[in-house]
Write a structure and sequence with these properties.
Blueprint: H1 2-11, E1 17-20, H2 23-33, E2 36-39, H3 45-57, E3 63-66, E4 74-75, E5 78-79, H4 87-112, E6 119-123, H5 130-133, H6 147-165, E7 170-174, H7 192-203, E8 214-216, E9 219-220
Helix pairs in contact: 1-7, 3-4, 4-6
């Protein structure tokens, strides 16, 4: 997903940094796209702080896309349900999806606040919608896991609260759709380019654009 986003933003004229835990893989990916690489482990304070220093030294930041995510409740190739979820699974999922999002956003806030038009895009999920998950007959209703939807619902709340706290920023959550990625063993029904569309669109909103919202490619989603 991040590669599709980076490709389109580079093509639109943006200077794009690709954060990667593996410095060499990040360097190779960035080189193919015309982007810049920065080592970034969003579960590690020191790594995030070092990434901030790199970006600051090279000119600052206008747009932050929080795209990292894990689905820790996989066992034998299947998603486990409520009867099998444990506190450890919840903790591992939240460490990346929730705490990592807060850690990175908090660390980059000083750079964003210097921008003339700062934007934050938090990649959420349709499974974060309580309305959808609670409505029988929808694909979200049939999804059995607990940790991943709960973590993305938390991301939505983080989005709303940060948007209220920083009204000069455009801060939104997006649902890219069921996209073929490593997260779902490439079982998604759309390409990464299709999934990147809403992320790129919200990354490019202007000062008069929406904030504190939850969107997919077709429009506003129910909380």
């Amino acid at each position: 997903m991040r590669i599709g986003c980076a490709r389109r933003l580079v093509a639109a004229g943006h200077t794009v940094y690709i954060g990667s835990r593996d410095a060499e893989r990040g360097r190779l990916a960035a080189g193919r796209l015309g982007a810049r690489a920065v080592r970034l482990d969003i579960t590690d304070d020191a790594s995030v702080a070092a990434a901030v220093r790199v970006v600051e030294a090279e000119g600052g930041l206008d747009v932050l896309v929080n795209n990292a995510g894990v689905q820790a409740e996989m066992t034998d190739g299947r998603v486990v349900g409520a009867a099998e979820v444990t506190a450890d699974v919840m903790r591992r999922t939240f460490e990346t999806n929730v705490f990592g999002t807060v850690r990175v956003t908090h660390a980059f806030l000083p750079l964003l606040r210097r921008s003339a038009s700062p934007v934050v895009v938090n990649v959420s999920s349709g499974l974060a919608s309580l309305a959808r998950v609670a409505t029988s007959g929808t694909p979200a209703y049939d999804y059995p896991s607990v940790a991943y939807p709960a973590s993305k619902a938390a991301v939505n709340m983080i989005t709303v609260q940060f948007a209220k706290a920083f009204p000069d920023m455009r801060i939104n959550a997006v649902e890219p759709g069921f996209t073929r990625t490593d997260l779902n063993d490439n079982t998604g029904i759309q390409t990464v380019e299709e999934g990147a569309e809403i992320i790129v669109r919200m990354a490019r909103v202007g000062p008069d654009g929406p904030t504190g919202g939850y969107f997919d490619a077709e429009g506003t989603l129910p909380w």
